[in-house]
Design a protein that fits this description.
The chain is 64% helix and 0% strand. It is an all-alpha fold and 107 residues long. The mean pLDDT is 91. The protein has a single domain, classed as Serine Threonine Protein Phosphatase 5, Tetratricopeptide repeat, CATH 1.25.40. The longest helix is centred in the last third of the chain and has 17 residues. The protein contains five helices and no strands.
């Protein structure tokens, strides 16, 4: 399995399809447990679905590798500068940030 399963999970999260996002992100992590970004996205999906214990556990997995990540700097180094993306995407991205906050990632 390649990186696209994690990307799909993150897209589903942005589209408020949390159950599907959780399933996809689990598949991505099983396929490539080294991609810690998927753990953070999974934490956000769990938190937005009200599954707080699972959200904290997924975030702890992420933080073992990237302990200095904050909501503010999460994914700041994406290939496309955020300012160049569509406003609807930036609004959807706020949902990801909300989930990260709820999971316990510091601001």
């Amino acid at each position: 399995m390649d990186h696209t399963v994690g990307v799909l999970g993150q897209a589903l999260l942005l589209l408020k399809r949390d159950g599907e996002a959780i399933a996809s992100l689990h598949a991505a992590i099983e396929s490539n447990p080294a991609d810690v970004g998927d753990y953070a996205a999974l934490a956000a999906a769990y938190a937005l679905a009200g599954r707080n214990d699972e959200a904290r556990a997924a975030l702890a997995q992420h933080d073992r590798v990237r302990p200095d990540t904050t909501v503010t700097n999460f994914r700041n180094l994406s290939p496309v500068p955020l300012a160049l993306t569509d406003p609807s995407y930036r609004q959807q991205r706020e949902r990801l940030k909300e989930g990260l906050r709820k999971a316990g990632m510091p601001e």
